[in-house]
Design goal:
By secondary structure, the protein is mainly beta. Helix content is 8%, strand content 37%. The protein has 1 helix and 5 strands, in the order ββββαβ. A 5-stranded antiparallel sheet has the order 4-3-2-1-5. A hairpin with a 6-residue loop joins β2 and β3.
Amino acid sequence: MLQWNWPKGNPPDDILDHTQICTDIYIDPVLGLGDQYMTQHSSNHYDYVNRSLNYILSYQTWTYQLYAHRT
C-alpha cells in the first residue's frame, strides 16, 4: 500500500490525501529490474488499474510525501 501526502498550508498539514494498493509486481528476468503496479480509486477507473508506479511518479509535478506500508 502506498499513501500520499500533498502538503498544503503553512505550516503544511500532515493529512494523508490518497491511497494506492499494489496489485502486481513485475521483475525482468534478464535485467533483474522490477516495477510495482498500483490500483487506486478514481472517476476514470480504466486509467488507474494496474498502472506502473514508475509511470505514476514520472508525471507528478507537485510536492508530495510518500508512505509505504507492507501488509
